[in-house]
Amino acid sequence: MSQNTRTVLLLIVIFSSCLMTACNHQDKAAETHDGRFVVTDTLLRSLLIDTVKAADEQSEISLTGSVAPDENKLVKIYPMVSGIAQSVQIQLGDRVSKGQVLATLRSAEIAGFTKDMVTSQADARSARRTLESTQDLYKSGLASEKDLEQAKADDQKAQAEINRAGSVLSINRTNKQGYEIRSTLNGYVIEKNLTSDMQVRADNSQALFIIADLSSVYVMVNMYESDIASVHLGDAVKITTLTYPDKVFSGKIDKLMDVLDPDNKVMRARVRIENPDNLLKPEMYANVKIRASSGVNLPAIHTDAIVFDNNRNYVVVVDGKASVHIQPVEIAKRVEDIAYISKGLKPGERIVASRQVYLYEALKD
């Protein structure tokens, strides 16, 4: 290596050392200016800065719930007569159409209804013949007006009995196998309490079938007492399920039950969810997130921005372009990861939300 080359390398090393010394001196001066810790623009840009939220900001509450059918789109089917089930044609979970036969019963009552219809038709024919004969006799003077009125009344009674018997048979529809139990709604069978050869009584309090239209469903949300004040009608809701963890169903609170369940001490809120693809099934478990009012008229910050030291809470406030200072704060309430500040901060102020512990220690010293 020549003498000139060694000289050039030595000058480069000396220049670099001087430059580093000057930079360190400049940074140190920036950190102790006017007795306050002043960060450089580069450091400030590397930090996460959060803004103190206004008092009317909303918070997100995480709750649980379950899917339930819309009671306005649900029917319970009871037997109109007693009998023995002969043919149960559908199973739990099947989709059925309005008017579809679900099962048939062999019933003695249906035989009685048919007999009543035949008898009433025969009586009506006899009453009509009597009326026509009496009218002829009345015209001939061989029957009194009273006899004619009585014949007319008997004819009207006979027609009324036909109508009654016909109505009974139309309600209790039959085929060759017996009494037909039919669906009165398009939907899914969500409960089934009938099997072949099962004896059925008309006074049974349990529905044979429950059918629900699941094109829209309810999610019943469980709210503990600490959450009730924060949830209101119209609050936006996002729902996920174990079956579809990546799919979010959106809705709004449309009803608050206003009574606590005595068993689990929760109050329920109702959310109506459109379900055109029938993804949501009754009794599914649901995770519910509600955008609700905070219920506290105080500025709010994220709890991660708070530094706890010597039994007090602090935040690092950004004063301007490149200046920060420690600010003690008093917390009135915490709701999940949100802290509501009763003293020390105002809405709109900026605070450091990353590496704040490092800055706090530097400022404190």
TrEMBL record:
<dbReference type="InterPro" id="IPR006143">
    <property type="entry name" value="RND_pump_MFP"/>
</dbReference>
<dbReference type="GO" id="GO:0016020">
    <property type="term" value="C:membrane"/>
</dbReference>
<dbReference type="Pfam" id="PF25973">
    <property type="entry name" value="BSH_CzcB"/>
</dbReference>
<dbReference type="InterPro" id="IPR058627">
    <property type="entry name" value="MdtA-like_C"/>
</dbReference>
<dbReference type="Pfam" id="PF25967">
    <property type="entry name" value="RND-MFP_C"/>
</dbReference>
<protein>
    <submittedName>
        <fullName>Membrane fusion protein, cobalt-zinc-cadmium efflux system</fullName>
    </submittedName>
</protein>
<keyword id="KW-0813">Transport</keyword>
<dbReference type="GO" id="GO:0060003">
    <property type="term" value="P:copper ion export"/>
</dbReference>
<feature type="signal peptide">
    <location>
        <begin position="1"/>
        <end position="22"/>
    </location>
</feature>
<dbReference type="GO" id="GO:0015679">
    <property type="term" value="P:plasma membrane copper ion transport"/>
</dbReference>
<dbReference type="Pfam" id="PF25954">
    <property type="entry name" value="Beta-barrel_RND_2"/>
</dbReference>
<feature type="domain" description="CzcB-like barrel-sandwich hybrid">
    <location>
        <begin position="74"/>
        <end position="213"/>
    </location>
</feature>
<dbReference type="InterPro" id="IPR058647">
    <property type="entry name" value="BSH_CzcB-like"/>
</dbReference>
<keyword id="KW-0732">Signal</keyword>
<feature type="domain" description="CusB-like beta-barrel">
    <location>
        <begin position="217"/>
        <end position="293"/>
    </location>
</feature>
<dbReference type="InterPro" id="IPR051909">
    <property type="entry name" value="MFP_Cation_Efflux"/>
</dbReference>
<feature type="domain" description="Multidrug resistance protein MdtA-like C-terminal permuted SH3">
    <location>
        <begin position="309"/>
        <end position="355"/>
    </location>
</feature>
<dbReference type="GO" id="GO:0022857">
    <property type="term" value="F:transmembrane transporter activity"/>
</dbReference>
<dbReference type="GO" id="GO:0030313">
    <property type="term" value="C:cell envelope"/>
</dbReference>
<comment type="similarity">
    <text>Belongs to the membrane fusion protein (MFP) (TC 8.A.1) family.</text>
</comment>
<dbReference type="InterPro" id="IPR058792">
    <property type="entry name" value="Beta-barrel_RND_2"/>
</dbReference>
